[in-house]
UniProtKB/TrEMBL annotation:
The keyword S-adenosyl-L-methionine does not apply. InterPro entries: Astacin-like_dom, ConA-like_dom_sf, MAM_dom, MetalloPept_cat_dom_sf, Peptidase_M12A, Peptidase_Metallo, Sushi/SCR/CCP_sf, Sushi_SCR_CCP_dom. Binds 1 zinc ion per subunit. This is Metalloendopeptidase. Zn(2+) binds at H157, H161, H167. The keyword Cytoplasm does not apply. Its cofactor is Zn(2+). GO terms for biological process: proteolysis. It comes from Potamilus streckersoni. GO terms for cellular component: membrane. The active site is at E158.
Length: 528
């Protein structure tokens, strides 16, 4: 790629002002971090920063950052970006050169492209210090290139964080290669030297020359005389640690491995009783789906070929329209006429959300339907101001009574202490009755529930979802893709090959667990 062409394209696409950036409702929860306090002894280290930064230059907004989490990489391998127009021409050139070297190091598998309308993008701006979040975070994602940070190597370091890379010295196997001199570390920065299980080694050796390595005296109480890191091998010069000049050979290999650059296409996505509009099957391409007349599309109508050679989102399927009583993926703000009314002081509202929930170590990364923008879901926020026993209640419109009805939906219940998700049925003057419930941590994935609707009365019926908070702020509960229809058709929809297999054990909660033979959904639960 001609560097002069790249520089010109990126320069002319800088926004006229930061105030012109699109403002989204959820940005308040995830947006630009507060200004970092001064003074800063070293712009690479950001010494003296508290709460905002982890490991010196990683912005942590109480989220999960992990290169091992697929949803937090840029799964089309394309990273849209904007550059703050307050940078002078020298700074802009250094930013663009940093992007160019990363692209070149990946053999142009990973690409930085000027943002047009993309919802997820990097915005390189000039705040205090040098820092970035780790991986794709959703929406307007800040990379700070503050005073003293405007050098290509430092910028590459921060962009590597944004791609999904942690620091080299925090690798789980680092104690085989370096010594951490704990007594020499500034007290408030000792946590920055902790081992992490959040990073992958990507089957690559420990790399003293990685652009992601700390210097030998990073966060030292006396940088001129005291080291904080020393190599175990006498063959390694400690002065080589923490270089900010170039990507090492291992850095380049890791980019290509993390972004699975050997995978170049996705298989052609057939859809029974429907159509796939598009012939480009390469990574980053998009295909739209539709159904024949008389059929309804269930699942993701717009899929992207991801970097692992798999199409994004839930596999779309066409269901015969007369057998579908109701379907909602919550992508529309009207919530398909589901409503929530506050009836007592313990009640809180479901939140309509896209991407990750704001609290660390709980909640989904993405919606179930689309696995990212512009997909939405509903969740109950368990952190402040929510309290123990608070609950969120969601009520459907009234449905006509019919025999042989079932309901499926997806739920996400992950965290240190998760409360209860319960489903009720309400008919006419009769009180609502519980027809399904589950409590506690159900692993960090979307699970599917399948509920037989036993309708005892002649009145139209309503479905209610109730999520109750446990005594912990780490217990978000989310739902997505609610479908009501004939039982056999729903079974066929999720089990087209007839590969559903019963697990012999029956839990005490009265549900029967089933497992898909080859489906990625893993489990669903059927009310007996």
């Amino acid at each position: 790629m001609d560097i002069s062409v790249f520089l010109w394209v990126a320069t002319v696409t800088c926004w006229p002002s930061t105030s012109a950036l699109p403002v989204q409702e959820r940005r308040e929860r995830r947006g630009i971090p507060p200004v970092i306090p001064k003074p800063l002894r070293d712009p690479i280290e950001n010494t003296g920063v508290k709460r905002v930064l982890q490991e010196g230059d990683i912005y942590v907004d109480r989220r999960r950052n992990a290169v091992s989490v697929f949803e937090q990489t840029w799964f089309t391998r394309t990273i849209p970006f904007g550059i703050d127009p307050s940078f002078d021409s020298h700074d802009v050139t250094e930013i663009q050169l940093a992007m160019q070297e990363i692209m070149s190091g990946s053999n142009f598998c990973v690409k930085f492209t000027p943002r047009t309308t993309e919802e997820d993008f990097l915005y390189v701006t000039k705040l205090d210090g040098c820092w970035s979040a780790v991986g794709r975070r959703g929406g307007n994602q800040t990379v700070s290139v503050g005073d003293g940070c405007n050098k290509k190597g430092i910028i590459m370091h921060e962009l590597m964080h944004a791609l999904g890379f942690w620091h080299e010295h925090n690798r789980p196997d680092r104690d085989n290669y370096i010594n951490i001199l704990w007594n020499n570390i500034i007290l408030e920065h000792k946590q920055d030297f902790d081992l992490t299980n959040k990073s992958q080694t990507l089957d690559s050796p420990y790399d003293y020359l990685s652009i992601m390595h700390y210097k030998a005296n990073t966060f030292s109480r006396d940088p001129t005389t005291l080291d904080t890191i020393t190599p175990k091998s006498s063959l390694v010069d400690k002065q080589s640690l923490g270089q900010r000049e170039y990507l090492s050979d291992n850095d380049k290999v890791r980019i290509r491995r993390l972004y699975q650059c050997n995978d170049t296409t996705c298989p052609y996505p057939n859809i029974m009783n429907g159509f796939a509009d598009g012939t480009n099957l390469s990574v980053g391409s998009r295909i739209k789906f539709s159904c024949k007349s008389g059929y309804m599309l269930i699942g993701n109508p717009d899929r992207i070929c991801m970097k692992n050679g798999v199409w994004s989102g839930a596999e779309p399927k066409c269901l015969y329209r007369p057998v579908v009583l109701h379907y909602c993926n919550f992508d529309s703000m009207d919530l398909c006429s589901w409503t929530q009314q506050i009836v007592d002081k313990n009640q809180i509202k479901w939140t309509w959300w896209s991407k990750e929930t704001p609290t660390d170590d709980t909640g989904p990364y993405v919606d179930h339907t689309r696995q990212g923008a512009p997909g939405y879901y509903l969740y109950m926020e368990s952190s402040d101001p929510a309290r123990t026993g608070n609950y969120a209640l969601l009520t459907s419109l009234a449905f006509p009574v019919s025999s042989g009805l079932c309901m499926s939906f997806y739920y996400f219940m992950y965290g240190r202490k998760v409360g209860t998700l319960e489903v009720f049925m309400k008919q006419g003057p009769y009180p609502e009755t519980s027809i399904w419930s589950i409590s506690g941590n159900q692993t960090a994935e979307w699970n599917i529930a399948f509920v037989t609707l036993k309708i005892p009365y002649i009145y139209n019926f309503q479905i209610l979802f109730k999520a109750t908070r446990a005594d912990s702020p780490y217990g978000d509960i989310a739902i997505d893709d609610v479908l009501i229809g004939r039982c056999q058709d729903l079974m066929d929809l999720y089990n087209p090959q007839g590969s559903l297999q019963t697990i012999l054990t029956k839990p005490a909660d009265g549900t029967i667990n089933y497992k898909f033979g080859s489906d990625s959904f893993t489990f669903y639960k059927l009310q007996s």
